[in-house]
């Protein structure tokens, strides 16, 4: 089993680091130039409030301050996966995902899943707020061929989109979040709308990939289906990734009635 560490979002670039260093040095020397012909007296005691304001404003303009991060919520979360075939003549296709925190299983083979076989691109389908009520109901894994899928689809398809809802009691207590995957031929996985990993055969094929993009070939473990088959996750074909995340309270999808209440309050204020 191959284990990797997934780091989502990039740290500040060298350019951003240079800006911060420049600010610190200038602030420590009592004054610095903000704009031509305008000098602002700046002491060390004013530096931190100024820096926080600078970072807040810069985050809207400079991508090096606005790296997207994976969030795990105390409440409801959504794991989404796109399974892509190598070609329409492929004899098999599968995507079985597992997500666990400190040994507690959140999603696994046998988990309830919403899925769809797309015939066009679906905007933001992998995001938590996307509507999936008209999608098919199934049990993970989803695919065809090799008798390793609890939900069997038709063959000769380019892709299958899957969405798993799960709850975490207290995300702040989770120290290590692990993602495991068994797949054929390629996949991309998102947690609460942020990509956590993709197979090598899907590298450079769009963010998100188009529905009819073919993947490089990759075989699954071909372990028999189960709910779950516990022998699956120790197979050499399984990939595992440690996901770096930020814990937050609340949930990925707000209840409709709560959103309606908030909108009503906003209208009343304005």
List keywords for this structure.
alpha+beta, single chain, 270 residues, 7-stranded mixed beta sheet, 2 domains, 16 strands, disordered C terminus, 16% helix, 3 helices
Note down, in words, how this protein is organized.
With 270 residues, the chain is of the alpha+beta class. It folds into two domains: 52 residues, no CATH class; 179 residues, no CATH class. Helices cover 16% and strands 34% of the residues. It is built from three helices and 16 strands. The strands form three sheets. Strands 1, 5, 6, 9, 10, 12 and 15 form a seven-stranded mixed β-sheet that branches. Strands 4, 7, 8, 11, 13, 14 and 16 form a seven-stranded mixed β-sheet that branches. α1 packs antiparallel against α2. The longest helix has 15 residues. It is globular and about 70 Å long.
Can you lay out the helices and strands and say which pair or pack?
Blueprint (H helix, E strand, L loop, with lengths): L1 E5 L7 H15 L2 E5 L2 E4 L2 H15 L12 E14 L8 E9 L2 E4 L4 E5 L19 E4 L2 E3 L6 E2 L6 E10 L8 E8 L1 E6 L2 E5 L40 E5 L2 E4 L6 H14 L1
Helix pairs in contact: 1-2
């Amino acid at each position: 089993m191959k284990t990797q560490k997934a780091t989502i979002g990039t740290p500040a670039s060298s350019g951003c680091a240079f800006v911060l260093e420049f600010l610190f040095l200038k602030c420590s020397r009592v004054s610095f130039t903000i704009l031509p012909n305008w000098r602002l007296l700046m002491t060390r005691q004013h530096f931190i409030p100024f820096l926080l304001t600078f970072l807040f404003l810069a985050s809207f303009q400079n991508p090096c301050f606005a790296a997207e991060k994976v969030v795990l919520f105390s409440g409801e979360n959504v794991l989404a996966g796109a399974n892509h075939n190598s070609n329409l003549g492929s004899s098999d296709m599968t995507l079985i995902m597992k997500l666990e925190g400190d040994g507690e299983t959140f999603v696994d083979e046998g988990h309830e899943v919403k899925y769809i076989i797309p015939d066009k691109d679906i905007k933001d389908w992998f995001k938590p707020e996307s509507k999936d009520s008209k999608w098919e109901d199934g049990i993970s894994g989803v695919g065809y061929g090799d008798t390793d899928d609890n939900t069997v689809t038709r063959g000769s398809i380019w892709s299958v989109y899957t969405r798993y809802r799960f709850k975490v009691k207290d995300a702040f207590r989770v120290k290590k979040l692990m993602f495991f995957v068994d797949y054929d031929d390629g996949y991309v996985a998102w947690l609460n709308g942020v990509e956590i990993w993709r197979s090598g055969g899907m590298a450079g094929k769009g963010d998100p990939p188009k529905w009819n993009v073919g993947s490089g070939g990759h075989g699954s473990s071909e372990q028999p289906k189960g709910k779950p088959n516990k022998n699956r996750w120790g197979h050499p074909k399984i990939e595992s990734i440690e996901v770096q995340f930020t814990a937050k309270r609340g949930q990925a999808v707000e209840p409709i009635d709560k959103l309606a209440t908030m909108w009503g309050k906003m209208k009343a204020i304005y």
